[in-house]
Amino acid sequence: MRRGQTGLAAVQVWLATMAGLAGGTARAEATPPPRISIDVGAGYESQSAPLIQLSPESTVVYLPGLQRLNGAHVRTAVQGFADTALGAGVSASVAGDATVKRAPGTPDLDFLSLSLQPMLHLPVGTASIGVGLQLQRMDVARHPFRNTRGVTANWTWPASDGLWAVVAETGSYRHKGELADLDARASALIVQRQFNHPLPGIDGMDLAASVGRERNVHGFRALSHRSAMLSASAQWTWLGAGWSAGGSWRRARFEDTAFDGEPPRDDRTTLLDLSAQWPLSSRQSLRVELNDVRNASSTRLYENHYRKISVALRQDL
Asked: How far is 97 from 88, CA to CA, in rounded Å?
């Protein structure tokens, strides 16, 4: 696993959870048909980090320049959502995602993610409460990396101009083999505000704030941290396409450092995303996406810059 991608994966899980709330707030008694979509695409990504070597005493020595990892990839993703009414406003849903990315010339960029989220939704006045499970498996560089098992609860309230949502989740991270030292317990609290047509020319806007805690189960304080994140995104229509631009800033403060003489590790991560999606038919669309992630750290070893551009064809079944 490339350094810095662990935090990014966590951020992506949080954002996917929040995005799913908007589609699951208003529920009719009639059971809608399952929604399934398939994305097939290709792209190019790169990652740079400090160039290092280990001394005979196993001390990290920083060298001039950067180590770089880059290459083209192909990607396939299948997403599904099913919802059934149980009566009296109660419903049950299940959301799933399977993503496979292969970089033939750079296997270190290969990625696999399988996730499942069954939930029960209960009406509370004009709001809704959901309780469910978070199950996920991630492979990196064609090797097992992490299994996540957790519980999630959310509260959503439709406002006249959009939506309020609060998500709380807790779970465990488990790793195999030599990565078992990364095993941890994690929890997060997320608050989101979604606006419909907040400004002329803007179709929607999302603001979110979150705090999290990750504690290493083996007591390694250099792998335990607290974090906070702020996010904002906007959606609009232009040139026949649906556009989306977003940015996030995240800070993670670790309890200790792995290197003698250095202060506890302190990371600051900036994420920027831009995408455009053109409808080709009622069930097909073409999506172009740019992603940029920079991680600055008080421990130079963890500094990195990740960039990706991708094009995908989406088919709704």
From this structure: 29
Do residues 100 and 75 lie in contact, with contact meaning Cβ atoms separated by under 8 Å?
Answer: yes
Q: In sequence order, what are the residues at sequence separation of 6 or more whose Cβ sits closer than 8 angstroms to the Cβ of residue 177? A: none
Give 149's Cβ-side CA count (13 Å radius).
3
Torsions phi, psi for 42 (to 5 deg): -145, 165
For 221, list phi and psi in degrees, rounded to 5. -70, -25
Condensed to tens digits (0 to 9), the pLDDT of residues 123-170 reads 999 999 999 999 999 999 999 999 999 999 999 999 999 999 999 999
The backbone region for 71, taken as left when phi is positive above 0, alpha when psi lies in -120 to 50, beta otherwise, is left
Residue linked to tokens 């990371």: 267
CA dihedral 300, 223, 11, 316 (to 10 degrees): 110
- Residues 48-61 pLDDT 10s: 988 766 656 556 66
Residue 189 burial (CB < 10 Å; 0-12/13-18/19+)?
Answer: middle
Instruction: Give, for 9, the enclosing helix (H) or strand (E).
Output: helix 5-23
Rounded to an integer, what distance in angstroms lies between the CA atom of residue 120 and that of residue 90?
8
Phi then psi dihedrals of residue 20, to 5 deg: -70, -20
